[in-house]
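Appendix B, record 7
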Amino acid sequence: MEDGKLTCKVLLFAAASDVCGKREAQLSMARNSSVGDVFDVLSETSPELCSLRSRCAFAMDQKICSSDTQLLDGCTIAILPPVSGG
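Structure tokens (predicted):
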């Protein structure tokens, strides 16, 4: 790991997975990054993801969190858009 950087695993579900074309990603982020920053980085390569932001929930290490939550090195972030079905 580079100085000032941390790594995180990102799990993408439902529509987030569809627009990104993958179910997970590994990211290297600045140490002071938040969960929202992870969403922003993913949106750079998948701009359609932006339309989901206001409807998504986020979790870090299996606990629901806000987009302002600071990342921890080695954490797993889940992006959880709304889902429907029966």
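Remarks on this record: Strands lie at 5-12, 24-30, 57-60, 63-65, 75-80. DSSP finds two helices and five strands in the chain.
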